[in-house]
Amino acid sequence: MSSTHQHQPDYILLGTTVLFVIVGLFIIASASPILGSSRFGEEYYYLSNQAIGAGIGVVALILGSKIRYQYWKKLAPVLLIGALFMMILVFIPNIGLELKGASRWIKVGPITIQPAEITKLAFIIYLAAWIETKKKDIASFSMGFLPFLVMLGIVSVFFVLQPDIGTLGILVITSILLFFIGGGRMSQIALLLLLGVAVLGLIIYFQPYRRDRLAVFLHPKEDTQGIGYQLHQGLIAIGSGGIFGRGFGMSRQKFNYVPEPAGDSIFAIFGEEFGFIGSVILTAMFLIFFWRGMRISARAPDGFSHTLAAGITLLIIVQAFTNIGAITGLLPLTGLPLTFISFGSSALIMNLASVGILMNISKYTR
């Protein structure tokens, strides 16, 4: 069933997204000046870059909401090939940029791009298009399961080489959920999860710092000055926020205590400044986003838009809750940023572009 009748888009989803971006800019303004001064000699380096990202992202959101969603289906193979080509560029000298032993960025003049963020969305669009064309064969081993495994395997190699295992984890979880939504069998999902755990085990075995992260998760009180430092300082920040928080701009842990206060630890600074109440409200906003996104998916006019809306929603929400879980000690540390909130203009632009696509689908819901 396809509907051509247009109506108003989902303004609750849009409003929630706009609030996220505003909250993100405010908390980066508070959390990053010390870091900006010490790393770049510029207090508002992080804020100005994020504000530029937000501006470009808003344009991407508006464009995404104007382009009819079916268009992405035709473009899906080209988008994925283009994204994977950019993933190769990160390894080319004078184009790729290496930071802390990871090759994840491309530098073009003053602009730094993180191709993994583009690849995440491109793969979800491709997967949604593939699932729609294969809808009768998804449950078959040779026609559905095997091709899905091969596609996921090829894309995974690019992430493992960078290495960016955190982002890969989010993409794999989202892809498996989409495969299930598209008609995959429970036995196939179980097999995928077993394979995933085995591969993750191998990665942890060959990368000692990942073993450390797992050790910290299992024994959070051990080595709080060494491998457990980030989690320990993050929990101090959240705990000292109490019920109502210290107040905006009043965080003490951002003064070189919490590592990456504008990055993957930003939720800890937010918790310190806005307290338990603020943290609950922020978490509730992500749940509202999830509800509206899945509602758009459930009412989508066709198979492609149904899967694509679910994929975009899950990509954003799985990452957000993985970040919150990691910094509160409920999950192992991943180094993943908090969606919409943490510093990272590539991620912000791509997430806002994704919301634009969701907004377009919401105009055609039943």
Q: What is the gist of this entry?
A:
Keywords: Cell cycle, Cell division, Cell membrane, Cell shape, Cell wall biogenesis/degradation, Glycosyltransferase, Membrane, Peptidoglycan synthesis, Transferase, Transmembrane, Transmembrane helix. It contains 13 helices and 3 strands, in the order ααααβββααααααααα.
How are the SSEs ordered, and which strands pair?
Blueprint: H1 11-31, H2 33-40, H3 45-66, H4 70-89, E1 96-99, E2 102-108, E3 111-113, H5 115-133, H6 141-161, H7 165-181, H8 186-206, H9 208-218, H10 229-240, H11 266-298, H12 303-327, H13 345-362
Antiparallel strand pairs: 1-2, 2-3
Helix pairs in contact: 1-3, 1-11, 1-13, 3-13, 4-5, 5-7, 5-12, 5-13, 6-7, 7-8, 7-12, 8-9, 10-11, 11-12, 12-13
Percent of residues in helices comes to 55-70%
Rg from alpha-carbon coordinates: 20 Å
Strand/helix succession:
HHHHEEEHHHHHHHHH
Low-confidence segments: none
Largest sheet: 3 strands, antiparallel
Shape: globular
> Which secondary-structure class do the elements indicate?
mainly alpha
The whole-number mean of residue pLDDT values reads 89
- The percentage of residues in β strands lies in under 5%
Distance between the termini: 10 Å
Please, how many helices? 13
Count of spatially separate domains? 1
- DSSP E strands, number: 3
| Main β-sheet, spatial strand arrangement | 1-2-3
Transmembrane segments: 12-32, 44-63, 75-92, 112-131, 138-159, 165-182, 189-207, 266-291, 303-326, 338-361
Pathway: Cell wall biogenesis; peptidoglycan biosynthesis
Pfam families: FTSW_RODA_SPOVE (PF01098)
Protein name: Probable peptidoglycan glycosyltransferase FtsW
